[in-house]
């Protein structure tokens, strides 16, 4: 969507993917406000399907009117098992979903008209869904054990994570997760949106 601080023309784009970021989706920086406005227009006016991952989930929720901010419960890291809502169970075809996590910001509530897909003890809104328009997840389906291990180590070495959080994350980093299933659901979501 953004290249050299310029938003791209979406006319020949099938879908938009909003990725993770080191930035805060709740920040008041001009580029964050501009991105939020552009996302809102993409979903509501251009009617392009939008997929959000981590920061992408948060900035998408903000653009649609939800409150986003720092989680008082702290960081959620490594593989976490999520309880799927009824909509989440239908979409993913199972009762729980495991996904790599690396965040301390959260979406506090689902925006009106959008369905929450899952919850965890630290984060009540783990995904958003509106058929053919919006699909987002708080976690990182694209992360594997190696990527997560490097992130945990770097953030521990830099003093961002204390020993307890670091060791807890490492103890679950290799747990089985549903990254491939989430990727398949995202692909199906985009293909379904093209049939409209």
TrEMBL record:
One of its GO terms (cellular component) is nucleus. Residues 11-145 form the Glutamine amidotransferase domain. Pfam families: GATase. This is Glutamine amidotransferase domain-containing protein. It comes from Penicillium concentricum.
